[in-house]
Amino acid sequence: MALDVLVPQMGESVLEGTILEWKVKVGDSVKLNQPLVELMTDKVNVEIPAEVEGILTHQFAKEGEVVPVGTRIAVIDDGKGDAVTALPAKEEPKPAMVAEPAAAPPPVKPAAEVKATGEIGKGKLSPKVRMMIREYSLEASAIVPTGKEGRVTVDDVMRAVEERSRAAGFTMGPIPAPPAPMVAAAAAPPSEKAPAVEVPAEPLVKVEIPVFEPLPAAQRETRTPLAGIRKMISDHMVKSVQTSPHVTTFEDIDFTELVSYRQEIKGSFKATYGANITFMPFIIKAVCIALKEFPKINASMTEKEIIFKNYFNIGVAVAREDGLIVPVIRDADKKTIVELAVELRSISQRARDNQLVPDDVSGGTFSITNAGMFGAASSTPIINQPQVAILGVHAIIKKPWVVNGEIVIRDISNFGLSFDHRLIDGHTAVQFLHRIHEYLADPKKLMMQLR
């Protein structure tokens, strides 16, 4: 009996994956739950296991191929029924036509002869060649063409640059001596002349002009294909901006009291719980409290309806070498600061080690991205679809601040909230961001809200 191997659903916003590696070949025996293939998505890499024991009889997708969710990519025969009917073999691609060897370029003519025959004229320079001529400040009429019908090629331009470089070394003449300084002479009778001022002769100065050696044309640029995780992130970001009209509102957040409190407890917290206490657990808790007051910001929407979420799954962006990923802390509103700190440490490490599973990156209702850990003072983050808002957190910087009519130095961070203007109005976004500020600026008020 034949069993189809399908691309599984890997999260609410994941619509396709890329075949990263086949673990088995056609004809191999497979065991129950044995990994068959590894798929790469814009969120995680997933291994698809065998759901039965048997023989892998067909593969319908090659490594590097993009396959939508639900696509049949292989067949396993468990040997318990009729033999699998072999699919018609794919027609072998016809060999590509081999181009005939290019004719040898015509012999290079001396520049004087080229000028005399007028072979360089309008219409003989391609846009790239014209750009190179302007870049290197060359005279088109001085370049000897070797292309078809008297065209100037890229190699012709580079040859002209090299010839100019070899001839570029020369010695400048003596630098003229500066004029004698003007000295105010004492008042003297008109009949007396001011004494002559002798200017010492300046030695001749020899100035060497460095020879410019341009990079060969093949080394001036490096190009790599847009593929894999970078391609998926690119597509996801473009889709988000095309779907949601983004607006970003900003507010400066006073962290002074929270900085002092964290400094006071961080040593004992590390010793007791084995995790560093950062500002992020406090930010997550403040966000959850504010989301309950402004439920639209915890919603999502389709073309026909608004979906209000009565749970609070907070995604926290983690930077990896392969690209940003947003693992989710589920039911964050029900967790204490300690629980949030410990879970953040665990899920962030698994993200950097590429050990996340699809459930770790799905189901988020609101996201936070911390560009401040890299020193950013401000940014406008892109919404993580299908959510309707994302909070950008930035570096805490000491700034002058007015308190009770006096200027003092405080620890200030700038927060940026990007929101989907189809659903969220500006006044709602501003009030939400200000409510977060109220809780973070007064840790006692924040602690009173914990439950």
Notes on the structure:
With 451 residues, the protein is of the alpha+beta class. The chain folds into 3 domains: 2-77, OB fold (Dihydrolipoamide Acetyltransferase, E2P), CATH 2.40.50.100; 125-165, E3-binding domain (Dihydrolipoamide Transferase); 246-448, 2-Layer Sandwich (Chloramphenicol Acetyltransferase). It is built from 9 helices and 16 strands. A 6-stranded mixed sheet has the order 9-16-15-14-12-13. Helix 6 (280-293) crosses helix 7 and helix 6 (280-293) crosses helix 8 (426-441). Residues 83-123, 170-179 and 183-188 have low confidence and may be disordered.
Please count the helical segments: 9
Estimate the strand proportion: 15-25%
CATH topology of the largest domain: Chloramphenicol Acetyltransferase
Shape type: flat
H and E string? EEEEEEEEHHHHEHHEEEEHEEEHH
How confident is the prediction overall: mean pLDDT? 81
Q: So, CATH architecture of the largest domain?
A: 2-Layer Sandwich
Structural category: alpha+beta
Multimeric state: single chain
Estimate percent helicity. 25-40%
Domain count: 3
Give the radius of gyration: 35 Å
Main pleated sheet:
6 strands, mixed
CATH class of the largest domain: Alpha Beta
**First and last CA, distance:** 55 Å
Extended strand count = 16
- Uncertain runs are 83-123, 170-179, 183-188
* Largest sheet, spatial ordering of strands: 9-16-15-14-12-13
Please, what is the CATH homologous superfamily of the largest domain? Chloramphenicol acetyltransferase-like domain
